[in-house]
Amino acid sequence: MLKQKIQKILNDQVNKEYYSSNLYLSMASWAENKGLEGVANWLYAQVEEERMHMLKFLKFINERGGKAIVPAIKQPPMEFKDVYNLFDEVLKHEEYITASINEIVAECFKEKDFSTHNWVQFFVTEQIEEESSVRQIIDKLNLLGKEKNNLYLFDKDIMSLRTTGATTNQ
Hints:
Low-confidence stretches: 163-170
Helix content: over 70%
Order of helices and strands: HHHHH
CATH superfamily: Ferritin, core subunit, four-helix bundle
Number of helices: 5
Number of strands: 0
CATH topology: Ferritin
Largest sheet: none
Radius of gyration: 17 Å
């Protein structure tokens, strides 16, 4: 049985993962409308990955005798200045999620819930990969500069930069 503090922090993470999925969905739609098909496809893949994370948290809570809560979520932004700004926002959001996962780890230690601590290590590793992947994309964008015509090849090749744990299952 999950302790109440652990159940609460895990349910909070369900909400954050659900929001992440919708945020990336909004970003993907924006990119698609700007003719950035590759960026949109990269983000659509992120949508599914974040949805999978949400489901993992939800199922874990229930499997451990807790009560998972399907949250209402706030509307994500729908407009972005440009693709550079978009990926800066992706990185900021991934750093926020990393901090949240770290809070779960800290709470697990505090509550001596080593089973949950062990389970959440997947997400610790996942966040290292997520941040690295986005930083790699930002580095590539910075190499291109701000010339719009430089984005064509980047947009065609972005899926080859997808090195996150999207295919990793736990």
